[in-house]
Amino acid sequence: MTRTLWGSTVGKKTVMAVSGLIMLGYLVVHMYGNLKIFFGLDSFDSYAHWLRTIGEPFLHYTWALWIIRVVLVAAVVLHAVCAYQLSRRDLAARPTAYVHKKQRASYATRTMRWGGIILALFIVWHILDLTTGTVHSGGFQEGHPYENVVDTFSRWWNDVIYIVAMLALGLHIQHGFWSAAQTLGAGSVTRDRALKATANLLAVVLTAGFITVPVAVMTGLVS
Q1: In whole angstroms, what separates CA 130 from the centre of its chain?
Q2: The dihedral of CA 69, 121, 28, 106: what is its sign?
Q3: pTM, rounded to two decimals
Q4: Cβ atoms within 10 A of the Cβ of 87, count?
Q5: What does the H/E/C string look like for the chain?
């Protein structure tokens, strides 16, 4: 059963849809947490500390956070693997590219693959910058997330990387949410308009929500 699900095109699309929705849920929470930076250092750092104490005393310090990380890594890997395999199947079934692109294909649809690559590279950079501090261009301070965020976005090239990635994320969500709904059977003639409107709303809100942080640092609103 598991092998049949994984081996079929429908099964891979289902895995992509479920893993995508898991990541979307995380992004909503992550954006909300990021916006706490507008309430000052204490609020933002307290939130970051709370993430490490979720579930105490039942769970030990950072255990819940690591569980979340493992689930997210699994979701990202499954999503990426299925996307690659489906792409290869699509190319194998259609070795000769269409002379004319489908008029209905949106810009988001045509750039899903490149957007996925951009986001994958961004995730690695983001972790190495603000989680481990490995590529942090300033003085990374362990346990001081507010200062690290402000320091990162005080450099224009970091802002460019982040904003480009968030724009790619918005396009990915716009198409991905609607596609996931279709795959999981939620789509219909009567619901398509509402689903597309929800996809557009999620894309705009998340993109704008994430981008407000580097913009606020650049303009001095957050310092």
Answers
A1: 16
A2: negative
A3: 0.88
A4: 13
A5: CHHHHHHCHHHHHHHHHHHHHHHHHHHHHHHHHHHHHHHCHHHHHHHHHHHHHCCCCCCCCCHHHHHHHHHHHHHHHHHHHHHHHHHHHHHHHCCCCCCCCCCCCCHHHHCHHHHHHHHHHHHHHHHHHHCCCCCCCCCCCCCCHHHHHHHHCCCHHHHHHHHHHHHHHHHHHHHHHHHHHHHCCCCCCCCHHHHHHHHHHHHHHHHHHHHHHHHHHHCCCCC
pLDDT in tens, 34-63: 999 999 999 999 999 999 999 999 999 999
Tokens of 5: 């699900």
Residues recorded for the chain: 223
